[in-house]
Amino acid sequence: MTSTHRRHHVWYLKGFRIFSHLPRAQLQRLQARLKLQHIRAGAEIYPAGRMPTSVFLLRKGAVEIARVGPRGRRVGLALVGPGEAFGFLGLLEATDWPHVATAVEACELWPVPAGEFRRLCRHHPGFTLEVARTLSGKAIAFSAKIESLLFKTIQARLADCLGALAERFGRGTDGGWRLDVPLTQQNLADLIGASRQHVSSALARLADHGLIRRPRGRAGRYEILDMDRLLAAARQP
Questions:
Q1: Which of 68-82, 93-107, 181-195, 205-219 has the highest mean pLDDT?
Q2: Which among 82, 113, 142 is the end of a domain?
């Protein structure tokens, strides 16, 4: 690897929130230990029921984090995007973890070995603080998801989910927003805790009301045609 590539990777690592307080020398040390991995769409990055051996830094693509129940039912917990880290909950607990990480599309990521991650936690308070802040953000998001499951209809949950995904993964178009990550109806069903059939019906109603445009085929990129009205639909009980 050339010195230019090394400097670029160090700069890129600095963009991850958990590394924002690490000194440059430590980032260079970390960069030298990382090897970029390419993951095909649909592949499991780590399976449920095993203790993770790495924390993963997502450079490109999107990853679904889901919990798998005793009968194999999946409940989507989060969709991870570029610049985010995942996999450290099970690692910090040092126990088997019921979550599975699956590449929604082709991904590039850096695995950080468990030993290196724990060393950073022990020796760099700023790093540990950012990990704690990230965990706090996840806890707040999980709390909001539980509230949504308890008090909102499937259509409102779906509208809320699409609006949130547009903010994180969307880009502006002449007519609204377009999600830059391919999603199946099952992906959306997992994320809002509903069946695919119910999601299909709710998508049809949102499309009929002129709020979204659905992709053709099994998976695709959804378009938000009227964000204000979609968010209003998300606030409905």
A1: 181-195
A2: 142
